[in-house]
Specification:
The chain is built from 9 helices and 8 strands. By secondary structure, it is an alpha/beta fold.
Amino acid sequence: MRGLSRPVLRAGWCGRLWAPPRRALAASPPSPPAATSGALSPFDRRLKRKQKNWAALQAEPAKCDYLREEVGGRIADRVFDITRTFPLALDVGSGRGYIAQHLTKETVEKLVQVDVAENALKNAVETEIPTVKVVADEEFLPFKENTFDLVVSSLSLHWVNDLPKAFKEIHHVLKPDGVFIGAMFGGDTLYELRCSLQLAELEREGGFSPHVSPFTAVADLGHLLSRAGFNTLTVDTDEIQVNYPGLFEVMEDLQGMGESNCSWNRKPLLHRETMLAAAAIYREMYGNSDGSVPATFQIYYMIGWKYHESQAKPAQRGSATVSFGDLAKIEGLISRGKK
């Protein structure tokens, strides 16, 4: 568990990247493809674009970016762990460049930043790496096959309607022996807020509706990445806990992050009495001794490689020359020898 406190408040080389128009996305600043509500399309992508654009236009957009910058730094650390230079990289759902600001041009020589919100790209943090900014949807990447040496993504893919398709798109644009490194919110994210709102609605209104979007389970990630064609997979989880003055500050910062709920089945309005009750329940059930309240963000980190014949391969089944039973006997002999 990691802890954070709420803070006080060149394009010449990109022409060869584009794919033929096999994708559904237009080339001009687009809206995400229209979707209808339902189990296969839980999110209103047009609303999510509006939310992210609104957040990027605030007077101090960096005020609420502390979580994104923290996770972006951890993604960059995983990039640095791979001892190679990546000539061309792609940041899917880049926002204002939360990963790029932690990278160096010695590690990534050129970078393409993709986001559905054009205002986030316009207000991106400057970096020493030459970059190109592209407005596009994560589910419809408009690039040629085998283009990028590295693809990264931080806290964006939890809003896509078709996560398996998004993983396949990423795999498609990676070169053989290219690597995908990503992070997304996990199922226990904001459980304190979720429980407080549900209990308050049950008490005041006799029922409840979802106010926190659904998240992917960690057990599904490895399967989805494998189905998309990735191998040598690594999936791990972490939790970041941020302390806030109260429930209203939690929701204010979520809005400032562009993380307001955009589920089709969301409730459009919360009554004042319900909100006050939820704030009291939040403080009573989860409050810290100093009067603040915690908000937990569960993060899934994933690494997957695109197959290349030079990669190490697992040994054939049945080729082992030593059994686990023999290993146990060796440990016993070593223990007796020490005595």
